[in-house]
Design a protein that fits this description.
By secondary structure, the protein is an alpha+beta fold. The protein has one domain. The chain is built from two helices and three strands; from the N terminus they run βββαα. A three-stranded antiparallel β-sheet has the order 1-2-3. The radius of gyration is 19 Å and the shape is elongated. It starts with a strand and ends with a helix.
Length: about 70
Amino acid sequence: MKTRVYYKNDPPAVIVQKDGKDVASYKTTEELVEAHIKGLLAVQEQEGRAVVDLLKKYRSPSDISKF
């Protein structure tokens, strides 16, 4: 699995490529970074919910409200 990011001039774009195939294209570097941050936040939110669900099985509701 090989991943790379490169710049394209015509039309201007930032391209994300995986295993030789283009998987995403962004107009600017800032757009790529914003998408990456949003993805990380979504994963973090999902993991947080999973932790709360797990705690519900083993802790009292007052302990869980701290999360």
